[in-house]
Design brief:
Length: 158
Amino acid sequence: MPMLTDLEKKIIALLQTDIPVVKRPFLEMAEQIGISEELFLKVLGDLNDQGIIRRFGATIKHQKSGFNANAMVAWRVDEDKVEKTGNIMSTFDEITHCYRRDPAPGWEYNLYTMVHASDEEACYAIVKQISNAVGETNYTLLFSRQELKKTSMKYFED
């Protein structure tokens, strides 16, 4: 991977902050670091083309939007079925994350999903639907009880 220039690092650092909710957010961001919008977008495109930046994602405060319950669901899925099962699970709108992890001693689960709903009862109902869709019944729901920290990764600081 090539070394990043100071300008690339500045742009990445700026993209780690909130993107302004304006008609031309990249113009406003470019002006913050003293470059043109055209140059900002060119560098951003180059970073994307190189695979250094792969995507942009919005983070929503789910509690403020009516999703008062969320649960990480830990599933025990046969290894030869993980990819197929995960692909089916990921089609559910209520799933925001779906990933495989190695089981740990005393913890047999290897596939994880995050489910968001209006309340815990709705989470259970959604997980039941997912369970029926994939034919997997070995799972446990781990509900969030208190948010202690929720931030995005910071690769470069100003």
